[in-house]
TrEMBL record:
Keywords: Metal-binding, Transferase, Zinc. This is 3-keto-5-aminohexanoate cleavage protein. Its cofactor is Zn(2+). One of its GO terms (molecular function) is 3-keto-5-aminohexanoate cleavage activity. InterPro entries: Aldolase_TIM, BKACE. It comes from the Bacteria. The keyword Lyase does not apply. Pfam families: BKACE (PF05853).
Length: 351
């Protein structure tokens, strides 16, 4: 991304699009009963509360009545329908991992099969986005956690701790290409969850080959454990290398969430918050998803940035926009064109 002399001036930045992840599938309701919704009505109301607080993108997971993350697509359909009716302007972003946890005590945690994960493209009603990882990678979310932050929660139970410590994200080439094909055929925009520079480079190659033909909504995920760590040099290099036309959100874990979100907003980028990312504030106290949104709204205003409304967030994300081929996709996202046969040196934009 390019930064001009006036790029840090708020009048030259997009309005802030706040993503909230309020369902926290890695936690059980007893870990934070004041803020973990269980019934369907509670889960819908949580989306309403977050939208009214200022979040316009809802990262959606679903719970069963026993408090465990749901793997039933029918439950996703039910929650999407309820949220769509209650807050029709909110961008619904389904978490592409669905749920990763043991089915019962003593069992290993498992991801759904590739065929079942592809069925996210058939959800009814249709979400606006499904998150998509690029490249299979380790996702040990416990690496940056410590006893002071998560002590006493269900995540510390040995079977859960080991499940999340050993978790990997299966996102190989064949699965990614087929998943993108199905999402695009259904008119669902992928939101790319990228673990570092290697995944950004793979995504660019997919665009150059015409596998993906749409806007680049990206999230840099700095949670360690196989993903980038929350080191400023990591995310600043990612920002530098991100295409000029991409829309970029920064995401991290626990006490890293607030400082990274603050940097993101100062740079003209976008934040993500919610109990899926952190249950606590900078002092180790429990902090609800709505409280986290209010905090980001206050900081955004101090920085001089306005918070996007639902329709404005849809325009920034280019929801519903698609391109005819690789050339148009490259141009729209600010990437250099593909090299033509016999062409020397670096192909220039705008030629």
């Amino acid at each position: 991304m390019q930064f001009l002399d006036d790029s840090l001036h708020p009048q030259n930045q997009d309005k802030v699009v706040i993503t909230v992840a309020p369902y926290g599938p890695e936690w059980m309701p007893e870990d934070f009963p004041e803020d973990i919704p269980v019934t369907m009505d509670e889960q819908i109301q949580k989306a309403v509360d977050c939208y009214e607080a200022g979040a316009t993108v809802l990262h959606l997971h679903v719970r069963e009545l026993d408090g465990k993350g749901s793997k039933r697509l029918s439950k996703f359909n039910e929650l999407i329908a309820g949220v769509r009716e209650a807050v029709p302007e909110m961008i619904i972003q389904v978490g592409g991992s669905i749920s990763f946890a043991p089915e019962s005590d003593g069992e290993a945690a498992k991801w759904l099969s590739d065929d079942t994960r592809h069925m996210l493209a058939e959800l009814t009603p249709k979400p606006d986005q499904v998150t998509v990882a690029i490249n299979t990678v380790q996702m040990n979310i416990t690496e940056l956690m410590n006893e002071d932050e998560v002590g006493g929660t269900s995540l510390c139970e040995p079977v859960y701790w080991e499940a999340y410590r050993e978790m990997t994200v299966p996102a190989g080439p064949a699965w990614v290409e087929e998943h993108l094909r199905r999402l695009q055929a259904s008119g669902i925009q992928p939101h790319f969850q990228l673990t570092g520079m290697h995944s950004l480079e793979t995504l660019e190659r997919l665009v150059r080959r015409g596998v993906y033909r749409g806007p680049l909504n990206l999230t840099w995920v700095g949670i360690g454990g196989g993903f980038d760590g929350p080191n400023p040099y990591n995310f600043m290099e990612f920002i530098r290398r991100a295409p000029d036309g991409a829309c970029l959100t920064l995401e991290s874990l626990m006490k890293n969430v607030l400082p990274i979100n603050t940097v993101a907003m100062a740079l003209g980028l976008h934040p993500r918050c919610g109990i899926e990312d952190t249950l606590i504030d900078q002092h180790g106290n429990r902090m609800t998803s709505v409280e986290q949104i209010h905090q980001l709204v206050r900081i955004a205003r101090e920085l001089g940035r306005e918070v996007a409304s639902g329709p404005e967030a849809r325009e920034i994300y280019k929801i519903g926009t698609w391109y005819k081929d690789a050339d148009e996709t490259l141009a729209a996202n600010g990437l250099a064109p593909n090299r033509r046969p016999g062409q020397k040196n670096v192909p220039l934009r705008g030629r």
